[in-house]
Amino acid sequence: MAPTTRSSRTLYDHFDPGPTPDFDEQHDYIDVEMTIEDNAHENKEQDVMEHDPVSNIERDRIVISIDFGTTFSTVAYAVLPKGVSPKNIHVRKVKCIGKFPGYRKLDGMLDTRQDVPTELWYNFEDQPLPSSDLLSPDLPSNDEASSSSDDDGPHGDSSGPDDDDPRVNRAARHINPRNTSVTQYWGFNVQQHLNTMNIPRDEVSPLTRFKLKLDNTEATEKLRADLDTILSTLRQRNIINDDSDIYTDYLTHLLKHAKEQLELSKELCENMVVQFVLCVPAKWPVKACRTMQSAVEQAVQRAGFNSKTQEASRNLFMISEPEAAAECILAEARSDLYRDETVVIVDAGGGTIDAVTYKCANDDPLRLSEEVVAPDSELFGASFINKAFEDKLEKKLEREQYLVQNGKTLKSIIQKCATEFEDNEKRRIDIYSPMATIRPIYIDNLRENPRKHFYQNRLQLKKYDNAVAF
Fold it and tell me: pTM value?
């Protein structure tokens, strides 16, 4: 049975998506907000607006929005002073958190960035294994645990709603305390630190693209298997108790930095009403939404927000990524979109490319309502360009074992090249130009071999190689 369309805006109080869907009767993906009854759309949205804490003009308010992306993440916010209606806040009043630790400006790049890499690294190379009485068995990952049920669907959702709730799983399955002495690096600091040392072996490598761990489809199978190698080691060492801990840890760093920046600018005050917004893919498993909601709640607490703000994080406003992008673009361009008009939105992100078709429910203020057709999402995001680039380098350098010296590994060399590619060439190349080429890639000690397009300390990719990557 094809998924139904739904109203676009929903405020979740302890996000309750209802009973676990019957995957035999549903599309492979479950739309985040499909669990709302169709005949309740209008009443639900009206009720949400009436009880929305941001609509209380008697208080100073701030909306903090989290875009947790596959390759980069962003925190945006808007301050609503006392007496000002949300309808009167222009898009220019929306700001983004910047000044992320570890960012270093490179030639041709901005002085500051408003996005930060979605990367996390638990550096325990110098730490001994826990003693045998504290060492956990290799606990199953979320995927393995959920797949133990005969009634599991293609996304690993078990038949009981409590089994899918990460808050229930953590309390029921794990008793050993986490090893909190391990140094955590996040965002730009991951690559900055790795550039000063050797990339560690695979099972203790940094976590990248781990958002796709929440997508249990065939397209992410290889990536999830690679992540499972790292997560297994982290569980063995009691660094994490559950796979979902990595989302909580990353969001804690992200929100702690956001809180510090907002307090420095005096835009976050003690008695403000706070609302948190989470952007999610157009189609996402219900279990993924539960995992992220739990992670946001815990991250808000660990980041040091006050008790009122922690309570506010439970009233999590979820919105699909393409709709959030569309509302911003339409507001910035001041485009005219009239009631009952239809708009097609394509959101090309780091992990997925989402396509959604909405009908305009109201033109002032803009409200996108029913989906004309069910949303679609494919794993063709920008991070796959990076992966293709890494695979191409790995194939070209696999026989150049002389490069493995002074603590370097082929993995560390390729990873460093990939980071420079992301920050430079990938952002400047015109893939539609027939003359487009990637600048020679610097690889220390690379020996000249014109047949392979190797030159002294330089590797030149051919145009065919560029086409493969892009």
Answer: 0.73
Beta strands, E only, 245-330:
273-280, 317-320
Contact criterion met (CB below 8 Å) for 344 and 282: no
Which run of H or of E encompasses 355?
strand 353-363
Which run of H or E residues covers position 95?
strand 95-96
What distance in Å separates the CA atoms of residue 49 and residue 382, rounded to the nearest whole number? 36
Residue 404 CB-density burial (10 A; 0-12 exposed, 13-18 middle, 19+ buried)? middle
Tokens of 351: 């992990």
CA distances in angstroms from 395 to 176, 279, 441, 465, listed in the order given: 42, 37, 15, 11
**Pick from 455, 451, 431, 430: which is nearest to 443 by CA?**
455
- Give pLDDT tens digits for 250-262: 999 999 999 999 9
Task: Tell me the per-residue pLDDT of 435-465, one tens digit each, with 9 for 90 and over.
Answer: 777 788 899 899 999 999 999 999 988 765 6
Token reading at 36: 């709302």
The widest CA-to-CA distance across the chain, in whole angstroms, is 72
The count of other CB atoms within 10 Å of the CB of residue 410 is 16
CA–CA gap between residue 152 and residue 48 (Å, rounded) = 33
Tell me how far apart the terminal alpha carbons of the chain are, to the nearest angstrom.
35
Record the tokens describing residue 356, joined without a space.
């959604």
| 3 state DSSP class of 182 | coil
Note the residue count of the chain: 470
CA distance readout (Å), 128 to 180, 181, 182, 202, 207: 14, 12, 11, 18, 21
Under 8 Å CB-to-CB from 83, ≥6 apart: which residues? Answer: 57, 58
